[in-house]
Write a structure and sequence with these properties.
Layout lengths: L1 H17 L1 E3 L11 H6 L8 E11 L6 E5 L5 E5 L15 E12 L2 H14 L14 E12 L2
Length: about 150
């Protein structure tokens, strides 16, 4: 029994060290830089890619989305259907790799205010719609697989 346990620990150690994987983990062969994607997001429309970034926020209710800081100024939302993957709050501050299809969702001013109000409510934060002066675009990656480092 001890021998079996030792072998099991040695075999599983890389999984523990490498991080938490969802749906088999991100496909590193599809890794592209965020700068390349953000320069012309339409070029990647419908193509499965892998992006990396630091997890900044995670949905507190269901773990159905996380926000990845992919450049100094840009964040991308990684969003799944509720229950498909559940991203843990403990992922905040960790490096993540997400493989999936990215889209740019352009919103008018009214939709931008509603979107930001919804996000604030989800995170238990205050929101003042009068501070929103311009419409925004939200880049969403719908992942097929994710790896979060430890």
């Amino acid at each position: 029994m001890k021998r079996f346990l030792s072998v099991w620990v040695l075999c599983c150690m890389p999984l523990i060290v490498n991080g938490t994987e969802f749906s088999g983990g991100a496909d590193m062969s599809k890794l592209v830089t965020a700068k390349e994607v953000l320069a012309d997001i339409s070029r990647f429309d419908g193509t499965e890619i892998t992006l990396t970034g630091t997890v900044m926020k995670v949905c507190k209710k269901r773990g159905c989305w996380m926000s990845l800081k992919v450049t100094e100024q840009e964040e991308i939302t990684v969003k799944v259907k509720d229950g498909d993957m559940v991203f843990p709050l403990s992922a905040i501050g960790k490096k993540a790799y997400a493989t999936g299809v990215i889209t740019a969702n352009k919103m008018d001013l009214d939709k931008t205010k509603k979107y930001l109000a919804h996000k604030a409510l989800e995170n238990g934060e205050a929101f003042d719609a009068s501070t929103v002066k311009a419409p925004m675009s939200v880049n969403i990656l719908k992942p097929s697989a994710v790896t979060i480092s430890h």
